[in-house]
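Researcher: Re-running this chain for the archive, since the previous output was lost when a drive failed. Same request as before.
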Amino acid sequence: MTKKHESSGPKVTRTASSVLRDSGASKTAKSLAGSALAQAGTKKASSATTARTAAKALNDGRTSTDTKALAGSVLTQRPGKRK
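Model: Regenerated structure tokens:
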């Protein structure tokens, strides 16, 4: 079985760039944006810490649409658990 390598696409990188430039963006949003940009065009995987942050953001009802998009991208780039 071959490994699937995901990377941030153009839409996510634009969103991440916008979030990083927004002085009103939350610390969580900026953290996820930085992770998404770092993984753009690479085979890097999200760390466990970043994945936990993303999961918490997705479960929080106050999370913005942009932050949810970044969180989804970050989680997609997390390798799955082996059985």
